[in-house]
Design a protein that fits this description.
Layout lengths: L2 H16 L5 H17 L24 E3 L1 H14 L10 E3 L16 E7 L4 E7 L3 E7 L3 E5 L2 E5 L4 E4 L5 E5 L5 E7 L1 H6 L5 E3 L13 H6 L20 E2 L1 H12 L9 E4 L14 E7 L8 E3 L3 E7 L1 E6 L2 E6 L3 E4 L5 E4 L7 E7 L1 H6 L5 E3 L11 E2 L7
Parallel strand pairs: 18-23
Antiparallel strand pairs: 1-19, 2-3, 3-10, 4-9, 4-11, 5-8, 5-10, 6-7, 6-9, 8-12, 13-14, 14-21, 15-22, 16-19, 16-21, 17-18, 17-20
The chain binds fe (ii) ion (2 copies).
The site of one fe (ii) ion has 5 residues, from strand 4.
Length: 388
């Protein structure tokens, strides 16, 4: 770019501002020169931006969607047969790609969610990264995760954490495969240009603690070793065992429930009361038989995994019917309500939600649906793609 020319053009424009052009033709020429100069100088005028930069309310690109377990399982199983674990990213993980996000492998704008398949006797090599990660165990027993030298055996319903830059690897000592949900803040981490990744020098870490060490040390949650300072950045234990989680759900069901989420619990860092990760939180919720919650909407997105049972979530008037193993997404500011039609079976949902990062930035809002007894009119049904 010729700087002298630019200067001349700017000067000409400012002269015109003092003595305005007389004819519309001149004005148009000046305007088009102005826009050309803006473009040449990597500038964009607000009044020519077609997308609404300051929308009146959230206008998410991510859409409400549902992935069927039978498809996910079958595709993961075939990947287990055909794809070696070392092919890219050290993990055989299959990402939920929200169709609203233009082919990106993300479930929502802030969260990556994948189904990961580990064959018996395999090792998913050790590495560490700044992306914050959880996994929720769907099926299989006999596999383990080692996080910073602490090895924990994984059972259905366990939540496992890998906070930023802690070494972690996964492996199996049995013939049976394991399958779990991976949840990471990869899109947010990348958007913030904050991604670091490092492979470990060996395939797997040395186990440096007693098996299940951090669960034994901190797992009760009400008590901590008296000589240690509280950990403020992330929970001191790397695993939340299902037996404890289920007990807490059953206990809460005896005394209280949310009108919007029924018997819902947030996994917390017991030493701070805060969410397990700083960029997202994890919930487990039980929809008791016959429950139909009231609708609300909130800023932030959520990914749900149906751990047990079947039911329905109505999202912006569309009914999403789900059963065990399915995953679904609720985008930001979408009305949603839950229903368990069964008269005798509970339904259990695990979810990750980006509320903590939204709240930390002072952008959180929620609103209850007040008409029609708190229930949205249902205008359609979501038809999931079926595996051919
Ligand atoms: Fe990882
Ligand atoms: Fe909600």
């Amino acid at each position: 770019m010729d700087l002298e020319k630019v200067e001349l053009k700017v000067n000409a424009a400012s002269l015109e501002a003092i003595s305005p052009p007389t004819s519309t033709g001149e004005e148009e020429q000046e305007l088009s020169r102005l826009y050309q100069d803006m473009q040449n100088n990597s500038l964009t005028p607000l009044w020519q931006i077609e997308t609404n930069l300051l929308s009146r309310q959230p206008n998410p690109e991510a859409v409400a969607w549902l992935w069927k377990w039978q498809n996910l399982y079958e595709i993961a199983r075939r990947s287990g047969e055909l794809v070696p674990i070392h092919r890219g990213g050290d993990r055989r993980a299959i990402a939920l790609s929200n169709p609203g996000l233009k082919g990106k492998p993300f479930a929502t704008p802030t969260m990556w969610t994948a189904v990961q398949w580990l064959n018996g006797h395999e090792v998913a090599p050790a590495h560490r990264h700044t992306a914050q990660a959880i996994r929720f165990i769907i099926d299989g027993s006999g596999s383990w995760s080692t996080v910073e030298g602490d090895r924990v055996f994984l059972e259905r319903g366990d939540l496992v954490l890998t906070p930023p830059m802690l070494w972690h690897d996964h492996g199996s000592k049995v013939d049976e495969r394991s399958i779990w949900m991976d949840g990471l803040d990869i899109p947010l981490n990348n958007f913030l240009d904050a991604s670091f990744f490092e492979p470990y020098p060996a395939e797997a870490q040395e186990v440096t603690q007693v098996l299940n060490g951090t669960v034994l040390k901190y797992g009760v949650g009400q008590l901590r070793p008296a000589w240690e300072k509280p950990s403020v950045n992330y929970p001191p234990m790397h695993t939340y065992k299902w037996a404890e989680t289920e007990r807490a759900l059953n206990n809460l069901a005896q005394v209280a429930a949310s009108p919007f989420d029924d018997v819902a619990l947030e996994y917390i860092n017991p030493q701070t009361g805060r969410s397990v990760m700083q960029s997202f939180t994890c919930w487990i919720q039980m929809l008791r038989p016959g429950i139909h919650t009231r609708a609300h909407r909130q800023v932030g997105s959520a990914v749900y995994h149906v751990f047990e049972g079947s039911g329905e979530t109505i999202i912006n008037g569309i009914s999403f019917e789900w059963e065990q193993g399915d995953f679904f997404v609720v985008p930001s500011w979408a009305w949603h309500e839950f229903r368990n039609r069964s008269t005798d079976r509970r339904a259990i949902l695990f979810s990750m939600q980006d509320t903590p990062i939204i709240a930390a930035l002072n952008k959180y809002r929620e609103e209850a649906f007040t008409e029609n007894g708190g229930h949205q009119p249902v205008t359609g049904r979501f038809t999931p793609k079926q595996f051919q």
